[in-house]
Amino acid sequence: MQNDIFGGTSGEVTTPQARAEILRSELNRHAHAYYVLDNPSVPDAEYDRLFSELQQLEQAHPELKTADSPTNRVGGAPLPEFGQVQHAIPMLSLNNGFADEDVINFDRRVREGLDTTGEIEYAIDLKFDGLAINLRYVDGLFSQAATRGDGFTGEDVTENIRTIRGIPLRLHGDNPPKVLDVRGEVLMFKNDFEKLNQRQRDAGGKEFANPRNAAAGSLRQLDSKITAQRSLRFFAYGIGYLEGGKLPSSHRALLDWYRQMGIPVCEENAVVRGAAGLLDFYQAIQKKRDALAYEIDGVVYKVNDFASQDNLGFVSRAPRFAIAHKFPAQEALTTVLDIDVQVGRTGAITPVARLVPVFVGGVTVTNATLHNEEEIQRKDIRIGDTVSVRRAGDVIPEVVASVLEKRPADARQFIMPTACPICGSAIVKLEDEAIARCTGGWIKCSAQRKGGLFHFASRKAMNIDGVGEQLIDQLVDKQVVTTAADLYKLGLRALVELDRMAEKSAQNILAALEVSKHTSFARFIYALGIRHVGESTAKDLAAYFGKMDALLVATEEQLLNVPDVGPIVAKSILRFFSDPLNVELVEQLIASGVHWPEIEVQEKGEQVLAGKTLVLTGTLPSLSRDQATEVIEKAGGKVAGSVSKKTSYLVAGDDAGSKLVKAQELGITILTEAELLQLCSRS
Ligand code: IVH
Q: How far apart are the CA of 562 and the centre of ligand 1, in A?
């Protein structure tokens, strides 16, 4: 009775075979939506349910198991070693360029090679920071995967690659080529990398230095069950051997073909004309780089037309038709000369490595943070070590790891000082905190004073243009300024007496100070630098209390009524205002003219979204994200970036993705824009 009726025939009757087929196709569809289209179609729990149903079905009926079943993705028996695979067509490397000039020269050589003066059409891909892999499909079925190796012979990583859910085990479409070698990169997304390292930390295992190493380490596991637990991704960007199929006419057409067959292709690509088009894309993607879900180390330019690629051919082991335009390195090796500590505005002590200057990520770096004492011990970083230093985007440069092989015999361990290097007060570390702190407070410790003033003047606080670190250093060191209130007492004479301060700049600073006096209650609260009171808590406090007088005398109970204020934050606020010096500071600031528009205190019942946290996703029909946020905040609600159990409502527009799925999974109420507006119209 089994095995003979196929899915979709008569109504209720389903055989195990038909059910298995339905499950396989559903699971493949969901994995494709999640990993390739980046648009999940079901909650994870639903995927897991279907998956285990299929697993059970296949266990009961082993004859139903097929080569392309998603249950093959869990990993198999460990291998004694990797086999060798000879590439049908060698996997070559790319020439690199760094400067614009290299790109202009590349374009010139291409035009000369093709004997044309016209503009060349180029396809641009990102240069993924992962491992190059060849995937072989035979009659549409995934059959083998190999690393690049030396370009001619690689390692057989078929079983590991099979666990990557974004890679189709069977190509979509009815007419697959007899043999197809897909070339692309295996990589790990940044968030998956963070999660993996967290798991490694929790388990006391080794952390990976970067997503590339994590991807390589995960792929080079002899035990594919381990690989199956690591979220790896794949992006296709090239083709090797092809038999029994028609080669598309261009790189762009190849990627389109791959997409149709269900092979993951990165969305960030372009077809442009001429060197100017290449350089424009390079500039644009560099700005976007940090926001990408994965790491890239440049872009790859390829002559789009395959016939022209053939005409250009290869020089030694790299194509003439392509070049990698690399970003300045974000990681570089240098030596730790010493480790000092820095004192932050809350007294937090941060160990900082003083380095032999090194050019990384486009700037010369001489200091890099080591975060805290535990981190130094965990990474085992010593004075004298050769270390890799990383600088990504605007993030503070950090020491990633020591190169143990290069450790000199006289390398010294860092010892946390017991007294603050600035004010001499004791340094203490509370048991439940990773961070050691100077106990001097801002009165004794000039470093804390400087940090506090810098925070006070910063963009999101009082936003005082021109009052930055260097000015504050001087003002504090020369004892012209002690508290934030002193900033507003500065006169032209005091300023022009400072080093490198022309009268014009001094006047600008005075004008900026004047402008900053018109502020908002929320900015003012934030500017005070109360521990645990960030921008968002400051907004909540301002909305709840409305007036400084009310906040100054707030009780713990009242504070706990403010959305997102818990016992720790409440205590910190109480402690701050119980210090007469802080109260005096507030009074002085107000007396010197700092003011803000009155806030109407929320009347209970009117603020329909009071205490509620909303998340926005997708494109709303009429409101921009900022406008929707304003509507929500006016009604007393808060907007958060991600969905969690604490989310009250999800406001979903078109093309809502994983947030919608997660909200559904958690049973969170979903609102349309219209429903949101209707709800808020009551407040
Ligand atoms: S094309 C014949 N495209 O870069 C040229 N390579 O230096 C074949 N890579 O081993 C390579 N992203 O690991 C190409 N979009 C991309 C790439 C890319 C990363 C890597 C790949 C290769 C190396 C070449």
A: 53
What's phi and psi for 550, nearest 5 deg? -70, -40
Question: Which residue, judged by its Cα, is nearest atom 24 of ligand 1?
Answer: 93
What distance in Å separates the CA atoms of residue 620 and residue 334, rounded to the nearest whole number? 49
Question: Token pair of 539, please?
Answer: 């907004």
Q: Is the pLDDT of residue 4 over 50?
A: no
What's residue 603's pLDDT?
Answer: 52
* Residue 323 in contact with ligand 1 by CB distance below 6 A: no
| CA atoms of 162 and 184, how far apart (whole Å) | 15
pLDDT of 590 reads: 97
Give the containing element (helix H, strand E) for 285.
Answer: helix 274-288
Render pLDDT for 604-656 as a digit per residue (tens, 0 to 9).
446 788 888 999 998 888 888 888 998 898 888 889 888 888 899 999 988 88
Total-model pTM: 0.61
Pocket probe for ligand 1: among 91, 92, 93, the residue whose CB has the most ligand atoms within 8 Å is: 93
Tokens at residue 552, please? 């100054």
Residue 319 Cβ contacting ligand 1 at under 6 Å:
yes
Q: Record the tokens describing residue 265, joined without a space.
A: 């292709």
Q: Is 489 labeled as catalytic in the residue annotation?
A: no
- What distances in angstroms separate CA 200 from CA 215, 381, 549, one per listed residue? 14, 19, 49
Number of H helices, E strands in the chain: 26, 24
Whole-angstrom Cα distance, residue 189 to residue 313?
A: 34
**419: DSSP letter:** B
Closest to 662 in 3D by CA, of 617, 622, 595: 617
Question: How far does the centroid of ligand 1 lie from the alpha carbon of residue 581, in Å?
Answer: 61
Q: Which one is predicted more confidently, 290 or 251?
A: 251
For residue 218, how far is its CA from the centre of ligand 1 (angstroms)?
20
Distance CA 154, CA 351 (A): 43
Cβ of 212 closer than 6 Å to ligand 1, yes or no, is no
Which residues make beta-bridge pairs with 303?
122
User: For 383, which DSSP code?
Assistant: B
DSSP-derived pairing of the beta strands 613-617 and 638-640:
parallel
CA distances from 126 to 44, 285, 302, 630 (A): 29, 9, 11, 37
Distance CA 123, CA 503 (A): 54
Tens digits of residue pLDDT in 252-262: 999 999 999 99
Q: How far apart are CA 330 and CA 49, in angstroms?
A: 42
pLDDT at 344: 93
Place of tokens 């894309």: 281
How confident is the model over 372-405, as pLDDT tens digits? 998 899 899 999 999 999 886 667 899 999 999 9
Q: Where does residue 605 fall: left (phi above 0), alpha (psi -120 to 50 degrees), or beta otherwise?
A: left
Furthest-apart CA atoms within the chain: distance in Å: 99
Q: What separation in Å is there between the alpha carbon of 141 and the centre of ligand 1? A: 24
Residue 601 tokens, joined: 């205190």
pLDDT of residue 9: 38
Query: Which pLDDT tens digit goes with each residue over 329-350?
Result: 788 899 999 999 999 999 999 9
Atom of ligand 1 minimally distant from the CA of 299: 15
Pocket of ligand 1 contains residue 332 by CB under 6 Å: no
